[in-house]
Amino acid sequence: MLTDQLDAINANYVRKRRTNGDDFGLLSSQRQFIDYTEYSYTRETDKKLILINFSDRILNLKAEEIGMRVRLQNKFATLPFV
What we know:
This protein is an alpha+beta fold and 82 residues long. The chain has a two-stranded antiparallel sheet with strand order 1-2. Strands 3-4 form a two-stranded antiparallel ribbon. It is built from two helices and four strands; from the N terminus they run αββαββ. The chain has one domain. The chain is elongated, with a radius of gyration of 17 Å.
């Protein structure tokens, strides 16, 4: 169930991807925005641990979507994330 949701999120961001040909911030696997690896628990095979890796690109897109504001370190100002 969780991995299906992660694949759906990944497919959603593939559709939103900007077409400038830049691969910066993408993961190097088939799933470029969110990748995951499943590890089986040794004693109980029905339980699994899932390690999720987020790309920099998806974190940047999400920050733009929610309108996150960033604070400049040397100045006392906040600006929108772009």
